[in-house]
């Protein structure tokens, strides 16, 4: 398995740090480390940057002058795509689906939306439940008819090309752990469009690392989430020339922490945001990393990680926080001493 056979733009800040979380570990009674993929560089960072290194290299190789992608209003993927497009001199158009129904001003114009626009991207809004894949194809065809060379990136950058970024992350994490003599018993992270987990599982299996990867769901129910990850992992392994290396049982998702739905903050997620912020000085986001961390915290409290060393992969997302300010009651932080 040789990643350098695939075109890649080296724009991410790698390797990302692997750090102990001492106060959180003490609080939860198990050893928890964090892999800081919230620090990948491009436009405040996040997990899409690793995928975009491969996707945007492919766009460049195809002579594209415009990229299109889609996601929810506060898509982190859209913001990171917009930043890559700016860096490479491409136009960028992002189709945004209203998956929450929030009328809140900050949700609709602040956070990632503000950053999309600052990077020069254009955005277009669609109601929730719309067929966004079809809508994006229509939009791309419109631009192609005008003579543009459009490269279409699926939601979340989750296809075999994007997943290569997380095969690379698996290599990177394992080599950091090996160099430091750090045995990893479990890798936990938030899973959504599935490219992150598919890439990690493919990389971990191809290296025969025996590190179990647990995805904490943010949208789909468990059978659907696991199937999505497994299907993409199989295609990714095939692309890499190691078809069959991922077994169905290597794909594990826990979807108990989704709450009422995608993009809707949960009580356990808000608690996770406060714990990471107050104990470790690390920012999570309500849509993804907080739900992943809520799973980590709850499973740790239930003794699931007893005597284990767990690595939490921080997939980023804090740029969305100012779009979700209504989810936090911080009135008691104003005091007169
Ligand atoms: C997109 C995203 C995820 C989920 O990653 P997938 O590859 O889509 O499964 C997790 N966390 C954050 C912050 C994200 O933006």
From TrEMBL:
<keyword id="KW-0663">Pyridoxal phosphate</keyword>
<dbReference type="GO" id="GO:0034011">
    <property type="term" value="F:L-cysteate sulfo-lyase activity"/>
</dbReference>
<dbReference type="InterPro" id="IPR036052">
    <property type="entry name" value="TrpB-like_PALP_sf"/>
</dbReference>
<protein>
    <recommendedName>
        <fullName>L-cysteate sulfo-lyase</fullName>
        <ecNumber>4.4.1.25</ecNumber>
    </recommendedName>
</protein>
<comment type="similarity">
    <text>Belongs to the ACC deaminase/D-cysteine desulfhydrase family.</text>
</comment>
<keyword id="KW-0456">Lyase</keyword>
<dbReference type="InterPro" id="IPR001926">
    <property type="entry name" value="TrpB-like_PALP"/>
</dbReference>
<dbReference type="InterPro" id="IPR005966">
    <property type="entry name" value="D-Cys_desShydrase"/>
</dbReference>
<dbReference type="InterPro" id="IPR027278">
    <property type="entry name" value="ACCD_DCysDesulf"/>
</dbReference>
<dbReference type="GO" id="GO:0019148">
    <property type="term" value="F:D-cysteine desulfhydrase activity"/>
</dbReference>
<dbReference type="Pfam" id="PF00291">
    <property type="entry name" value="PALP"/>
</dbReference>
<feature type="domain" description="Tryptophan synthase beta chain-like PALP">
    <location>
        <begin position="12"/>
        <end position="316"/>
    </location>
</feature>
<feature type="modified residue" description="N6-(pyridoxal phosphate)lysine">
    <location>
        <position position="48"/>
    </location>
</feature>
């Amino acid at each position: 398995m040789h990643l350098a056979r695939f075109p890649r733009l080296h724009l991410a800040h790698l390797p990302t740090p692997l750090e102990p979380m001492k106060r959180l570990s003490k609080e939860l009674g198990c050893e928890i480390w964090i892999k800081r993929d919230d620090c990948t560089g491009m436009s405040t960072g996040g997990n899409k940057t690793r995928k975009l290194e491969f996707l945007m290299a492919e766009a460049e190789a195809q002579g594209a002058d415009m990229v299109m992608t889609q996601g929810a209003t506060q898509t982190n993927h859209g913001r990171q795509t917009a930043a890559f497009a700016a860096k490479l001199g491409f136009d960028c158009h992002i189709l945004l689906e209203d998956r929450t129904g929030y009328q809140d001003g900050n949700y609709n114009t602040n956070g990632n939306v503000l950053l999309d626009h600052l990077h020069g991207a254009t955005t277009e809004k669609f109601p929730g439940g719309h067929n966004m894949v079809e809508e994006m194809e229509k939009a791309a065809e419109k631009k192609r008819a005008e003579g543009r060379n459009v490269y279409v990136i699926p939601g979340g950058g989750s296809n075999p090309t994007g997943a290569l970024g997380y095969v690379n992350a698996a290599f990177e994490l394992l080599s950091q752990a090996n160099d430091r003599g750090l045995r990893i018993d479990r890798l936990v992270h938030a899973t959504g469009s599935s490219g992150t987990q598919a890439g990690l599982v493919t990389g971990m299996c191809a290296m025969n690392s025996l590190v179990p990867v647990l995805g904490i769901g943010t949208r789909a129910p468990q059978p659907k989430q696991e199937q999505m990850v497994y299907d993409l992992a199989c295609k990714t392994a095939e692309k890499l020339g190691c078809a069959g290396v991922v077994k169905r049982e290597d794909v594990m998702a826990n979807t108990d922490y989704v709450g009422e739905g995608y993009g809707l903050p949960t009580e356990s997620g808000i608690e996770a945001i406060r714990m990471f912020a107050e104990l470790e000085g690390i920012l999570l986001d309500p849509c993804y990393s907080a739900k992943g961390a809520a799973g980590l915290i709850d499973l740790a409290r239930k003794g699931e990680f007893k005597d284990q060393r767990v690595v939490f992969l921080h997939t980023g997302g804090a740029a969305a926080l100012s779009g979700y300010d209504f989810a936090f009651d911080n009135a008691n932080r104003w005091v007169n001493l």
